[in-house]
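User: For my dataset I need records formatted as: sequence, then structure tokens, nothing else. Please produce one.
Assistant:
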Amino acid sequence: MIDEINRLYLSPEMQSTEPVNKSIPSFANWLSDKLGETNEQLLEADKALRQLASGQAPSLHQTMLSLEQAKLSFQFLEQIRNRLMSAYQEIMREQI
């Protein structure tokens, strides 16, 4: 009976050498994308602010929305950095 179970679970047909899901992006790629998006939002907010200062902005409301969106994106990245630094420091404190 044990031999039958071993044949079922240890057969080479059941084992695959391919990764389960190839479409999952890595953390580095995700972080790079978020950095790019945040940079674009900061540049758009800066452009909107310059247009407001020169009197060419369509509305104050739209300018404030772009500024707030850029601020929130930056704060999100700042929290990611803080968590990564905290994890790194905790790993460095561990005794080997």
